[in-house]
Amino acid sequence: FRSLSVAPDGGGVAAAGADGLLRIVRAADGEATALVSVHDEINHVAFSPDGRRVATAGQDGRVAITAADGRPISDWDTGDEPLFGLAWGPEGTTLASGGGDRSIRIHDVAAGGRVIVEARPFDVPAAGVPADAEVEAIAFLGADRLVASCGRTAALLDAASLDVIRFLSGHEGTVGDIDVSADGRRIVTSGSDRQPQIGRAHV
Fold it and tell me: Omega before 8 cis (within 30°)?
């Protein structure tokens, strides 16, 4: 598997990878409750905050929304191929995506993925990102901030405008995963250098 996501109530696990199948299993016994083909390949999977939906990011540049019982809900083409990073906003009405074209997009889920705001925050010299780097990971930090990675650099962004608040450096390899502490005070990044980094969300 390339990606796993645990339902907010801990009752289910979504898993996906190169075969393009979304698997949803019960955490208690591992029994599959849904098996759905949604992409040729899946790079990221994420349960919604209410646990009723699962979003997947495909190698084909599409986002698919699937109900927790396996029913398809919606899908859209982001125009960004491949797609790696995907994160639900805390209210469950928006999704942030990013991938091969280095753009970050905030989508309105109810409006079929309509792009609310789009930006390329890593296309500035201060980011120190090579031209062939891709957006690998995204995480929301509350409702008003977003953390994303591209190459060896992560960035703390304003969630409404996608303006850069500050860049986060220190990795020697590509940053492939981002998480945020439950209290919203710490940002954790990890990458190909196998050295997790912990930074403060506020300075």
Answer: no
Burial class for 185, CB neighbours closer than 10 Å (0-12, 13-18, 19+):
exposed
Contact 183, 195 (CB under 8 A): no
Through-space distance between the first and last CA atoms of the chain, rounded to whole angstroms: 36
What is the chain's Cα-based Rg? Answer: 16
Q: Confidence class of residue 203 from pLDDT cuts 50, 70 and 90?
A: low
Q: Which of 101-110, 127-136, 168-177 has the highest mean pLDDT?
A: 101-110
How high is the pLDDT of residue 12? Answer: 97
Q: Which amino acid is at 5?
A: S
State the pLDDT at residue 183: 87
> Got the DSSP string for 147-178?
EEEETTEEEEEETTT--EEEEE---SS-EEEE
Q: Which residues contact 54 (CB under 8 A, 6 or more apart)?
A: 5, 14, 22, 24, 45, 46, 47, 48, 65, 66, 67, 68
Q: What is the mean pLDDT of residues 127-138?
A: 93
User: What's the one-letter identity of residue 69?
Assistant: D
